[in-house]
UniProtKB/TrEMBL annotation:
The chain crosses the membrane at residues 58-82, 94-115, 121-142, 154-174, 186-207, 300-317, 337-358, 365-387, 393-414. The keyword Phosphoprotein does not apply. It is a multi-pass membrane protein. This is Polysaccharide biosynthesis protein. Its main location: membrane. The lineage of its organism: Bacteria, Bacillati, Actinomycetota, Actinomycetes, Propionibacteriales. It comes from Nocardioides bizhenqiangii. It comes from the Bacteria. The keyword Ribonucleoprotein does not apply.
Amino acid sequence: MTEPARSETDDAAAATPRGTAGGRATLVTIDQGLSSITNLLAVLWVAHAVSAVDFGSFALLILVYTFVVGAVHALISMRVVVAPEDADDRPREVLGSALVLGLGSGLVCAVVGALQMLAGWSIGPAILVLGLTLPAMTVHDVGRWVAIARSKPVGAVVLDGTWLAVLAASLLALELSDQAGLVTLTLAWTCSGALAALWVPITYGMFRPKEISLGWLRKHWEGSWRLLVGNVTASGSALVGGVLIAFVSSPLAVAAVRGSILLGRPTTAVQMAVASSAAADIARDQPDNRGLLRYQRRTMTVAAVVALVNLVVLSVVPDSVGRAVLGNVWPVLDPLILPISLWLIAAASQSGVASALVGRHEFHIAMIVQIIGGVLSVGSVVVGAIVGGPEGAVWALFVGQVITSGCWWTGFLWHLRRTPAGAEAG
């Protein structure tokens, strides 16, 4: 089969030095930070600018966006990170599949929003806006990961940096003009992301009609569906766990768990960044088992250092700062700094393991581990909430993470034992 012709942009990117692994990991970390700040800025601004009812509606929009992007991330982004040859040679085919998924999801949202408008629901116009911009926002998110897969994470930084800058300017303009409302704030958030997505065709060229299809996804479906199942299980477990905790214990226990996760967000963002960078490097370099372990140890070391720094910061943070960030939830979390810190260290202990497995295309093992780890983790947190309320739930969060780490290490060691010494990825 003849390879598709490479564009001048592709050739230029291939000819550009890719930089060191450490430099790439740093840029991926910066990009993860920019992405987190963008959504956090939107949520905090809306919380201060509109009523509690409208804030709840905006939170629902964020949830819909997160669900769609999470599914596309599992189906396409995670898969292309470990298929760097496609990111190098066929980026528009990858992005074309993302665009089709975004168009389908956006159409559903737009129809739902239009029907809600006809029924007189106040959230209808905002849902319609999300639906109209969702295709571009989906391409934006996958574009970040294509850049990372190409070992050119500066492209991801440009994408998210542009979104953040345009969003900040839009929010400030709404504030100065006194036009802040659910629909206008939704327009500011979604349209700034869609505008930033223009970087994608500028970099890779305009889509050809044949590239706007699910062709690339169909070729890689064997691995993609496993990643999707694992991702949905993990995210679904967190949702089910929150509902069960509220049912068997109290909303305070749910707040303690969610607040703990929020406190750990800086650490988990860095861990995700170095893990994503490691997976891309492993897939591209195809190291033998010794090289694979070197990647894993390097990733785990960075994650552990960040977790220890987080522990120190949480231990010395003044009550005034804690209350300013988390409000009335801070008094609940203040006595639980130790289990929160231990949870982050336990999470660091598995860093690099998932990257190694996915980089070796062991999607089936990763799927099984995510399912088992997710179910056991939820079970432990629910039991902890029943036995010890908020404190028991957070300590159980740590126990659940230890269980999950054990599952990942079991799968990783099994992979190493069945792979001959000196062998490359299978």
